[in-house]
Amino acid sequence: MSFALGIETTCDETSAAVVADGRRVLSNVVRTQAALHQKYGGVVPEIAARAHIELIDEIISLALGDAGITGSALNVIGVAHTPGLVGCLLVGVSAAKGLAFAWDKPLVGVNHVAAHLYAAALYEKITPAGDAWTAGDTWPALGLVISGGHTTLYRMASPRDLIKIGHTIDDAVGEAFDKVAAILQLGYPGGPQIDALAKQGNPEAIKFPMTLLGKESLDFSFSGLKTAVLYNVCGIGGKQREASALSPQERADVAASFQRTATDILIAKCRRALGQGGYRSLVAGGGVCANSAIRSGLLQLGREHSIAVLLPALQFCQDNGAMIAGMADELYRSGVRSDLGLRVVATS
Ligand code: KG4
Ligand code: ZN
Q1: What is the DSSP annotation of 135-147?
Q2: Does residue 189 have its Cβ closer than 6 Å to ligand 1?
Q3: Structural domains of the chain sorted by starting position, each given as residue range(s) with its CATH number in brackets
């Protein structure tokens, strides 16, 4: 059995995890900083980096303890070194380097976005039905990463070989969820709140614009949708009234109609990409992949195209160390090694 430790500090979650054989999660300790950033309505990089420093040692100890192993049992130490907030990345990478040196273990730098897709391979107790991940017919896959920082489509020849085929030209879809939640005065992070409120609303109540860009384009745009919600709720210009002027039902209708439009945009782009042919499955990941409407839309699209849809379990959608550990194990097995000079890269 091989044991990988994964360390994740790219943004506002401090996390460490131990994964066995690249897929079975033995521990996954995630400490979110959401409460620290709530009053600012978004992540403050300096506050995030300081919080990572305070937490990282304890989180790693907890992850090893929960898994019932010590550092000496590890086969590899993986760390997210790109993309992310530089000050935050430095905390995780420094910790990983220190431990790799102290315990004399191999170090592997992991791309956080690729790891979001790898999250679909992870399981805790129950082996995924049919285990499409290892079946020969999974690749090439269409990969969709939807998070607070990314909305990107990839052609995946394997979990390690990603070619970007589309991305957002403005806001990430998670950002749009967070901003719409702020407009509706629901608090931060807003995605889960919109998801919950949308269940009480009518998704057909308001027709928001669906920006699809060029006919063939696989890129995304969400800023027009966000502005349309702002003008709908607060009046043209966005300053005439506040969300509190709406009835609870009207607010739920806005949430449901926005979520429906965002889902339709994501599905339309995936359908377009699948239509270009050659994909044997659809793999998705990222915090927004926890969204109930988006999950069911993706599963429905898979049925339409008779392909498997691999989605991470809910606990592996948001930023977590398990996806970093799993991806590190995958890379390590294929011969990838980083040295103690591993650098952080803000954008990749
Ligand atoms: O992957 P993640 O934890 O961090 C990044 O790498 O950005 O994603 C965070 C994003 C936030 O924008 C949050 O509002 C969104 O994921 N999110 C959701 C849901 N749960 C989290 N968005 C929509 N529906 C959800 N249920
Ligand atoms: Zn992420």
Answers
A1: SGGG-SEEEEEES
A2: yes
A3: 3-124+316-333 (3.30.420.40), 141-312 (3.30.420.40)
